């Protein structure tokens, strides 16, 4: 496989050379990038002139640039003001204040329930509103359960394109129609002497019944080298890697095994605390063919999509992106599936962006290493969105160089600070940027710079790209 991959890279390099494209010297003269794939396209959208181009048609690993497709598709499909509903319902009858039946929380893919990313330090305040709505419905006692209904998505909570090394970590949580508290738990460890095992102190939020198999060592490293493995709906979590020694308490982040059930438990406890008795313990369902009709109590609405999309692109929020990606599958049928989401995204963009038909799409957040998209495709997407009715919201959702989001620490020179509005994408051996540039003469450029297969540190790639874009900017001043 390595030979095939190397041959493809050499062939792509040769093809780019044959058609007259020259790799910029800042990359070609760097021996550490001699075996990397590099793709570049910069276009002046005012004049349609190509400013720079190298291997722009070559598909490469997009990493988090994939979120550009997800957020653009969501905005174009639902609109910026759309709010994702979550329903409170009941089955059975209410007699003299007693519900003879179950209370349901039915999710449809709102990733923000209890999310600190949106609601800050009081993310669960919505539960008080829910309690009041239950009281307003005349319910003083529930002779049944609170049931979390996550059946709007199918049962496949983990994207099959993700790597095992990622699954169970906070950035690769299970994707369900009911998310809660960012589907994440903070595992607090006690750091000891070099060579000792870290001790687990607690989790936040406190998560009952979770079982840790802990192999984390305390070593001389000065960074978080720990990671978590585990599957959705399974309370067993394996902890591997290492953390710095002798630091006292040390927190690492992992995914929440069962967010729908955890939400149902929290709501049950809140109801009981407010004086509404609940007879049976909380439950959850991930597939559902209801035999008993349900009655509506309340519809909870998320923040509007402009807010959610900005969180995705500003913070590169994988959970938000993947939940919205899965939700797009409803356009081809429910329960929403990964395969319907992929098919819908292809069909939506293939008629609008010609190279889309040659891309490989496996997920919505960019964790899938089999995603494969060219710089040309991203540039065409960005140019399309520039003319969209959602152009302003999409543009404003992108981080700003030297100022906001994931670009706050890059392109910070006098010329580029505040002039680059773009999404970054990176994981091991991959570094990409795509977005818009305010050109020196007042024109606007659209660009995509992608590097894959570079066995160097991320900082090295970041500096190279930064210097290259600075040089291009100065040459066109």
Overall description:
By secondary structure, the chain is α/β, with parallel strands linked by helices. Among the domains are: 2-79 and 307-475, DD-peptidase/beta-lactamase superfamily (Beta-lactamase); 181-255, no CATH class. It contains 12 helices and 21 strands. A 5-stranded antiparallel sheet has the order 2-1-21-20-19, sandwiched between helices. Strands 17-8-6-3-18 form a 5-stranded mixed sheet. Helix 3 (66-78) packs antiparallel against helix 7 and helix 3 crosses helix 8. Residues 1-14 have low confidence and may be disordered.
Q: Which helices and strands, and how do they pair?
A:
Blueprint (H helix, E strand, L loop, with lengths): L1 H17 L6 H4 L8 E8 L5 E5 L11 H13 L4 E8 L2 E3 L2 E3 L2 E5 L8 H4 L6 H11 L4 E2 L3 E4 L34 E8 L7 E6 L6 E4 L2 E3 L5 E5 L6 E9 L3 E8 L3 H15 L3 E2 L4 E3 L9 E10 H11 L2 H10 L10 H13 L24 H12 L4 H6 L23 E8 L2 E9 L5 E9 L5 H18 L2
Parallel strand pairs: 5-7, 6-8, 7-16, 8-17, 11-14, 12-14
Antiparallel strand pairs: 1-2, 1-21, 3-6, 3-18, 4-5, 9-10, 9-15, 13-14, 19-20, 20-21
Number of strands: 21
Kindly report the spatial arrangement of strands forming the biggest sheet: 2-1-21-20-19
CATH topology of one domain: Beta-lactamase
Largest sheet: 5 strands, antiparallel
SSE class = alpha/beta
The helix tally amounts to 12
Q: Are there runs of 5+ residues with pLDDT below 50, and where?
A: 1-14
Overall mean pLDDT stands at: 93
Q: What is the CATH class designation of one domain? A: Alpha Beta
What is the CATH architecture annotation of one domain? 3-Layer(aba) Sandwich
Fraction of residues in helices?
25-40%
End-to-end gap: 45 Å
For CATH, the homologous superfamily of one domain is named as DD-peptidase/beta-lactamase superfamily
Oligomer: single chain
Portion in strands: 25-35%
What form results from the Cα inertia axes?
Answer: globular
Radius of gyration: 24 Å
């Amino acid at each position: 496989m390595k030979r095939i991959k190397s041959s493809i890279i050499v062939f792509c390099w040769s093809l780019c050379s044959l058609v007259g494209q020259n790799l910029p010297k800042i990359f070609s003269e760097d021996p550490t990038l001699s075996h990397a794939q590099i793709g570049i396209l910069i276009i002046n959208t005012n004049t349609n002139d190509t400013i720079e181009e190298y291997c722009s048609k070559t598909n490469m690993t997009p990493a988090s640039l994939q979120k550009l497709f997800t957020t653009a598709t969501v905005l174009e499909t639902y609109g910026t003001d759309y709010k994702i509903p979550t329903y409170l319902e009941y089955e059975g009858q209410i007699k003299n204040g007693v519900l003879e039946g179950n209370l349901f929380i039915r999710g449809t893919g709102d990733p923000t329930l209890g999310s600190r990313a949106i609601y800050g330090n009081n993310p669960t305040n919505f539960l008080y509103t829910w309690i009041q709505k239950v009281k307003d419905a005349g319910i003083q006692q529930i002779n049944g359960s609170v049931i979390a209904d996550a059946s709007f998505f199918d049962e496949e909570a983990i994207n099959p394109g993700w790597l095992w090394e990622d699954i169970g970590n906070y950035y690769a949580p299970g994707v369900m129609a009911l998310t809660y508290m960012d589907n994440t738990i903070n595992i607090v460890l006690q750091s000891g002497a070099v060579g000792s095992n870290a001790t687990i102190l607690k989790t936040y939020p406190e998560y009952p019944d979770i079982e840790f198999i802990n192999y984390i060592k305390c070593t001389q490293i000065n960074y978080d080298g720990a990671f978590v493995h585990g599957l959705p709906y399974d309370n067993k979590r394996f902890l591997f890697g290492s953390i710095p020694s002798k630091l006292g308490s040390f927190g690492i982040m992992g995914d929440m095994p069962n967010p729908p059930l955890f939400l149902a438990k929290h709501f049950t406890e809140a109801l009981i605390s407010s004086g509404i008795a609940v007879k049976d313990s909380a439950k959850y369902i991930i597939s559902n063919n209801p035999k008993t009709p349900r009655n509506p109590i309340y519809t909870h609405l998320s923040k509007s999509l402009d807010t959610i999309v900005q969180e995705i692109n500003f913070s590169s929020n994988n959970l938000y992106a993947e939940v919205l990606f899965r939700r797009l599958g409803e356009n081809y049928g429910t329960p929403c599936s990964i395969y319907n989401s992929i098919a819908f995204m292809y069909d939506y963009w293939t008629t609008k962006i010609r190279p889309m038909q040659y891309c490989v799409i496996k997920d919505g957040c960019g964790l899938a290493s089999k995603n494969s998209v060219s710089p040309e495709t991203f540039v065409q997407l960005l140019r399309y969105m520039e003319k969209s009715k959602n152009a302003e919201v999409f543009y404003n959702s992108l981080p700003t160089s030297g100022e906001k989001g994931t670009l706050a620490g890059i392109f910070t020179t006098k010329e580029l600070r505040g002039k680059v509005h773009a999404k970054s994408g990176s994981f091991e051996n991959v570094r990409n940027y795509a977005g818009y540039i305010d050109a020196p003469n007042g024109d606007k450029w659209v660009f995509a710079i992608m590097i894959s297969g570079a066995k160097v540190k991320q900082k090295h790639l970041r500096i190279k790209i930064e210097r290259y874009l600075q040089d291009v900017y100065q040459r066109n001043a």
